[in-house]
Amino acid sequence: MAMQAAASMFPQLAPRRGSDRAVVLAPPPPPARVAMRRRSSGGVAAAARGVRCRASLIEPDGGRLVELVVPEEGGRREAARREAAALAHRVRLGRVETEWLHVLSEGWASPLRGFMREAEFLQALHFNAIRGGDGAMVNMSVPIVLPLGDAQRRAIQASGARRVALVDATDRPLAVLSDIEIYRHNKEERIARTWGTTAPGLPYVDEAITNAGDWLIGGDLEVIEPIKYNDGLDQYRLSPAQLREEFARRNADAVFAFQLRNPVHNGHALLMTDTRKRLLEMGYKNPVLLLHPLGGFTKADDVPLSWRMKQHEKVLEEGVLNPESTVVAIFPSPMHYAGPTEVQWHAKARINAGANFYIVGRDPAGMGHPTEKRDLYDADHGKKVLSMAPGLEKLNILPFKVAAYDTKQKKMDFFDPSRKDDFLFISGTKMRTLAKNRQNPPDGFMCPGGWKVLVEYYDSLTPSADSSKLREAVAA
Amino acid sequence: MAMQAAASMFPQLAPRRGSDRAVVLAPPPPPARVAMRRRSSGGVAAAARGVRCRASLIEPDGGRLVELVVPEEGGRREAARREAAALAHRVRLGRVETEWLHVLSEGWASPLRGFMREAEFLQALHFNAIRGGDGAMVNMSVPIVLPLGDAQRRAIQASGARRVALVDATDRPLAVLSDIEIYRHNKEERIARTWGTTAPGLPYVDEAITNAGDWLIGGDLEVIEPIKYNDGLDQYRLSPAQLREEFARRNADAVFAFQLRNPVHNGHALLMTDTRKRLLEMGYKNPVLLLHPLGGFTKADDVPLSWRMKQHEKVLEEGVLNPESTVVAIFPSPMHYAGPTEVQWHAKARINAGANFYIVGRDPAGMGHPTEKRDLYDADHGKKVLSMAPGLEKLNILPFKVAAYDTKQKKMDFFDPSRKDDFLFISGTKMRTLAKNRQNPPDGFMCPGGWKVLVEYYDSLTPSADSSKLREAVAA
Fold first, then answer.
1. Where is each ATP-sulfurylase PUA-like domain found (chains A, B) (predicted)?
2. How many domains, in total, are found in chain A?
3. What are the chain A neighbours of B141 within 8 Å (beta carbons)?
């Protein structure tokens, strides 16, 4: 891959200047306009909550970033590996569970220190938030849990074990789970409360719940070494700590995160550029964009991560986004497609990576209803729920303006309702269909190099394509 | 009914002593042991939160008890009635909606001031809590909403009306709903997030959701006059304000609430008596029990309210509970049978009525799964969820000890696992089956007069009984 042109956006390839890593940033003037995002909707609805200004990056949930990878010093990893290999019980992780192990190990879910015990699971399901040790609520909307089959549950409980090894498909130890708690995996209730439906055909449910065990095992994690996938993309998998370091190195005084699982078109780019402009107008001196494609499990008809990264690279090479103010990295979480519930997770995880502004669009983390001809979620619920969510008060939510293709100007622009017939809405489905059929989108919809990647991807899928081609790399 | 013997428990029949209504109560010594109820369960689970001592009754949610009935003074009710009669749009309330109107009108759902608008609905569904005007979270776990059909929705929206009349089955105006907001009633999502299942056969869903409109209308309420049912039981329907007055009159320095929808047996009575003993040991001087049967919609095989009230009366007449320290009143809410979600509503509403202690048992608000051979909820989830619920921090949760029939002592007693074979568990279903078959339960299970009422109730149901016999009185 020709990555040079994009080097300054891809921080892991940029030259490091060690001397300015510890710079303490001056606080920007109060960005008063942002406070307006909290709509007053009468009754006892969400009240305006002030914007918090900080002299440095936003604080992680719980006050301290959790990092669960055993330090290298003093042969501690080797010791952990030996201990894990000697433990009587080994729980084998599937693809999605390994992605969650990755997520937990780097503190995206801070202050969680491992797979959820029942108290955390119940709070996530019922309140989308968990009370931390200090009594404060932190947001936590999706259960991060580890299923366990009944035979293994009985064996572990009969032995009285308090620690188990977590291993990969080849029985290689990945982590030790300690002070364990085993409790029932009520799948129906979990699905209903997370997705707001129990209709068959939810991608995450099919992938990671339906055939999973009827028990869940929670506990504290010690992860033996950083999770790697060896798919040529590991250098983009920056941990929250690494991202925070990069933002500090760049003297960022505001970080705005953009979660995506689709190719970037010029409407997205317009939005990100416009957001930076707005932040500068608010008085921030150096707002930095975290362009943060999701890297974990996605449904079969989404474009795979490796192709999306190639597409993002072209978009950056062709100058659609400003390299100086953009950091591209992979967010290791699997995708739930749980709409308003999941968008909270997407936002919360980015707080832990240092983002204090979060861009939210129409129908975030949404999809079609699996059995009915409609979207599963109301397109506005995501941003409404996000703006009211407990534990996200410190995050500034930036709702999307709607961008569409302006047939008069021949470019993507913010939709102008006064001349609505001039605009063309090109959905993700429409975009994918065009690329599949090797048709071109209208000029100015996406940079040519980026579009070419998309067409190549669909070309690479023959009608008889083995379904494994649609799969992402699995952590090795 | 021969109510005299129970007069002092039924406050509305007791002689009033106006002089002591305004007594300010001295704070009891700190009840340190109660703080232990918050289990430490590791990780980021619920932390111990201190017990709040108050010099008077516990504060209502939002700081002030909401009362939405138009005051009688100055002909205001007549004016409201005239206005309502003249409004262009009338939304007709069914039985359950009228019960919610009753609930809202008296402030059980404080700080809610009317049927939920979308922001409140979404917060209830996703967070089981709503952010009040002061930014603090108050608990609100079940949606209190008013469905609207599509034709009426279009008519209201076309007219631009901001106020509509709410009327009963005979078109009599009950209330005015103002500053209205109309939004979609996504039934599947509402059901999944409230019950944790979408299985057919949920009693509340069948009664109030399945055939309801596809829209919801929220707004602020002015209720024209107090809701009455004219079923001979209205004198037990004390509002939160009336209950607070009664507790003050009795110089209560602790109020412990017991929610029930079943006949009282001696196990319940033991529990309530024991709770009072524990509160006295903690240093409270005058703990008062609020025995608070639910009076709204219940499923067809529950014992109807009128028979339950007769049964409670007998239990009190026969001295099973102490009249001096018991207030019996009806809680006007309909029943959801939504387990851990609903128990929060049951507890929250009692805060508004002045209760600072809440007794919670096994599987509160639970029922059998409608389509599978198991309980719908884990029997322990109710008390766990309740103890962690946002907005209920100020309420002291008292988990049930399990009472069962001790065949050696021939009485209900707390279950002793060291001689477990001596105990007999008699479920609600078992109790109902015995009464239906005119069989007697073991001596000491229930006072004889109370049992007789139950048998009479089942006798009154002939095999060909019209199903309307199973229905409760509807607000007139």
1. 58-225
2. 2
3. 126
